[in-house]
Design goal:
It is globular and about 50 Å long. By secondary structure, the chain is an alpha/beta fold. It is 32% helix and 23% strand. The protein starts with a helix and ends with a strand. The chain has helices at residues 2-27, 34-44, 53-56, 59-70, 88-94, 110-119, 160-169, 194-204, and strands at 78-81, 102-107, 127-131, 144-149, 170-181, 207-215, 218-224, 251-255, 258-261, 266-268, 274-276.
């Protein structure tokens, strides 16, 4: 009897280990909920960039310069980078002298954002970092000239909802840049073929879609929102961020450590300058 119980416990623990190992290694905690997923990224943050160096070396060529070319008639683009991690996209753009816009960089992990703050220490005038956990995003329709989300759709519960949300906050004529996990990534349940991924972008309302090889685990995806509109003309987070209390874009910087809305709601700012938006 005792031997049977021990064997049963070992088997259960073995299955749990395989599930957790697979969940963390392949899916980065996506099925464990945003709080646990954020906690996992906090644990990985200090070492996260080490496995990305090969692909990051091509960021000026594959990310920054094509985007700057698309924005050449827009002197001060307003950019939202979702799942910014350690600030890969902001760093790629802000280290290009031609970029004169402002970037709002969101992530669910405070640890990742702290790494981004350190990496971007010399460019903080061009980027605002914010911890934010769930959809929908706290911005009005048609707010941003550019929306980016790199290497992250595969570690979201599904792709349709976030893609529709990204299209909502992008202004007509604006640029969307993202990535498609390749078959080599090993995330079989999350990989979408180029045709399937293109279909998802079309369903979300994007056009002029291009999916090209980027690096071993990801292709780069590029699209636009149909229509034309003038650039947003916005330059700061407080001009676009909806208050979690009243829903209005009326937050103001009361000090270096908090934003405050006329309705009385306050958002803290960490010592590293990261705005902390409450979980909804």
């Amino acid at each position: 009897m005792v031997v049977g119980i021990v064997i049963g416990v070992v088997v259960v623990l073995g299955f749990l280990y395989l599930f957790v190992d697979r969940e963390i290694y392949f899916y980065e905690g996506v099925h464990l909920g945003p709080q646990i997923q954020g906690w996992l990224y906090d644990r990985w943050a200090a070492e996260y960039d080490k496995g990305k160096r090969e692909s990051q070396a091509r960021d000026p060529e594959m990310l920054a310069r094509p985007l700057l070319e698309a924005l050449k008639d827009m002197p001060q683009p307003f950019v939202l980078d979702i799942a910014t991690g350690t600030g890969r996209m902001p760093f790629a753009l802000l280290t290009q002298p031609e970029f004169k816009g402002h970037i709002i960089a969101l992530d669910i992990s405070l640890g990742m954002l702290e790494q981004a703050a350190a990496k971007l220490a010399g460019q903080r005038d061009g980027v605002t970092l914010m911890k934010y956990t769930t959809l929908p995003l706290p911005f009005p329709d048609n707010t941003f000239d550019v929306v980016s989300c790199m290497e992250a759709l595969e570690v979201m519960p599904e792709m349709e909802t976030p893609l529709a949300e990204f299209a909502r906050i992008l202004r007509p004529g604006g640029v969307f840049i993202s990535s498609r996990g390749t078959e080599a990534s090993g995330r079989k349940n999350k990989v979408r073929s180029v045709a399937e991924f293109t279909g998802l972008l079309q369903k979300a309302g994007f056009e002029q879609i291009q999916v090209i090889p980027w690096w071993k685990w990801f292709d780069r995806a590029w699209a636009r929102k149909p229509g034309q509109s003038t650039p947003s003309g916005l330059h700061q987070l407080t001009e676009a961020l909806r208050c979690p209390g009243c829903g209005k874009t009326s937050l103001e910087a009361e000090s270096a450590r908090k934003l405050r809305c006329a309705c009385g709601v306050e958002l803290p700012i960490s010592p590293e300058g990261i705005v902390i938006y409450p979980a909804q």
